[in-house]
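fyi for ur records
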Amino acid sequence: MKILITGNMGYIGPGLVNKLRQSYPDAELIGYDTGYFAKCLTNVDYLPEIRLHKQLFGDVRNFQESMFEGIDAVVYLAAISNDPMGSKYEEVTMDVNYRSAIKMAESAKKHGVKSFVFPSSCSVYGLAGDYPKVEADELNPLTAYAKSKAEAENGLNALASEDFVVTCFRFGTACGNSQRLRLDLVLNDFVAGSVISKEISILGDGTPWRPLIHILDMARAIDFGISRDVSNGGNFLVVNTGSSVWNYQIIDLAQAVADVVPGVKVSVNPNAQPDKRSYKVVFDLFEKVAPNHQPIIDLKTTVKDLYANLTEMNFNDHNYRKSQFIRLEVLNSLQNKGYLNESLIWNSQN
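which gave:
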């Protein structure tokens, strides 16, 4: 078996590659990444990519079709991966997250790839209030990132067939330790802030709902998607991926951190403008189709692991929101130094 993983050198990739190495010990694992975040290693003594058979470097917007020859499954992790980046690089977000995903899927299908796995997002539901969303509900994507995921789902649906099985996972907000840790995610940021200042200041009133999922549980789901049979969910499956116990309000996440990290104070801003990105999600379909790949990591364990990891790193960067832990800051730095152009393409002279 040969599995191609695009965007493997980011936050989710190291854990996913490790999981796939365990699940498919004889498989040939191939990474494909442009390398924006390759240097953003945290608390690790080796490159996570040593678990791969091959690491290719390239941009999903400009790939060689020949790399799909002999490939059985593709995992399209590549993405401009949050709202701040999507806001600054809106057209790039649509190109990477949507248009290139469709082009790659078309090429993969033409070359006989059997399985295409696409990490989508629960953010496609947008402003959903207290009504828990199921897969058939109307989408209301509010940001470039969310819109790109919704458009990609539609395009992939049109390509799916009995010989080209497509699985789209609508993941909640990612969290947890990684060998390329991000702190521009709500729970991870709360833990980092608690370590630095013993304080969590919520910019809003703390009431918006978010479904969360640990990145290792995301890897478990992707593992299911790679091997999913067409008889289980059909040619095209879009599924809310996570667990009902991980539907939390922002204030609950902050309190969970305060319960683990000693001496932390939590504050909210009741006068802030309401955050329209609020949604609860129903995960019944995922439980039905993937009973052996359900999330196994809980909130308290996630917070403890993040806290322990940051402590082991002697984390003390009071300006971490301007550091390599924030993906937009990494892109800004590469642009400011002249390595990337305005379309986030590597400049040839560097």
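The CA atoms of residues 102 and 154 lie 10 Å apart. thats all i got for now
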